[in-house]
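Q: C-alpha cells for this one, please.
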Amino acid sequence: MEHIQLSSFQENLFATIEAVRLTERPILVTQNGKSLVKIVPVPTAESSWLGSMQGSGRILSDLLAADDEPVVWDVLAE
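A: Here is the predicted structure, written as C-alpha cells:
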C-alpha cells in the first residue's frame, strides 16, 4: 500500500483522491511515521458481487407443487 505524508496530502488533495479513484488502490496518510487515515476507493457497480447473477437462472417447474410420488428417504424409513 502506498503511503503519503499528511503535508503532501494537504498540498495535493485532489490529485491524491483522483489517483485513488483511477487506480482503485488505497493510500495510507501518515504523520511522523504514524498512520492517520486510509483513503480507499468507493466500489463501482461492476465490481460488486451483489446482483451479479441476476437473470441467469430459469425456473423449470412449480417449486411449491407436491410431487406425484412422494419419496421416502432412507433415514425416515427406519
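A few notes: The first strand starts at residue 2 and ends at 5. The chain has a mean pLDDT of 85.
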